[in-house]
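Audit log entry. Action: structure prediction of a protein-small molecule complex. Ligand: zinc ion. The ligand was supplied as SMILES and no pocket hint was given, so placement is left entirely to the predictor. Protonation state taken as written. Sequence taken verbatim from the request; no trimming, no tag removal. Recorded inputs:
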Amino acid sequence: MIIDCHTHLNNYADETVDDLAGCLARLQTVMRRNRVDMALVLTSYKVVPGRPSTRAVVDATKDLPNIRVVAGLSWNTFSDADVAELRAMLVAGEIIALKLYPGYEPFYPADPKLAPAYQLAEEFDVPVMIHTGDTYSARGKVKYSHPINVDDAAVDYPNVKFLICHLGNPWFRDCMEVVYKNDNVYTDMSGLTLGDFSDRFEAYMRQQLKEMLLWGVNPRKVLFGTDWPLATMESYLQFVEELKLQPKDRELMLWQNAAALYKLDVQPSALGVASLLRRI
Ligand SMILES: [Zn+2]
């Protein structure tokens, strides 16, 4: 069983071209090829032709039992209308988490403007995923995406669960401390590379993750995610295999942690559907 907790349906090749259907078809193909049973699709903080809205992604995936949607928020344009729309989608079970993009937008996670988003997350008991670390674009401002800033939000909202995306890359130690210190903070290993890992880079990243676990980060708080299509699922599954984890920890990271954090109904019914889909 494998759950990829971090994928996108954005057309990164050309943001001026709408390619939702094509991206979704490619995602289904790579999931089948890599035996990934379920993927969480994270929508963007901006809506342009190559970056579909949460509503568009919800509608495009509503009949797919192996896809769940995480709603990306824009701090810049966050409004009462967004809160109302998110609430409706949470009530309908159309989204299972929220995602913030500090760094890409100039704000810290504990910004008071986001209080209504955290209140929704608490009310519906859904996690808030937070982009951290390097930004794909050089236009980003990385002081905002430093993982240490997640600590403020985690302390201010102790009943909300947070997920630090990308292990805080390259601020692994800061991520490690924030996850270790706060019961309500998790992290995912997505987006550590673009495309495939080079051997040297993969060894370096493996070392960082091993150190985190050795130092005392609970394996129950580390989730498998890729950041597909920016990183390939093939290279990520290889990355996990080469971590040489205890079988128990491997199962936790590959799917059990995600199933628990996002309250995913993955077995036995969804597992049956996923293995059925694999045979088609
Ligand atoms: Zn991502």
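Audit: result stored. The two ends are 18 Å apart (CA to CA). The chain has a mean pLDDT of 94.
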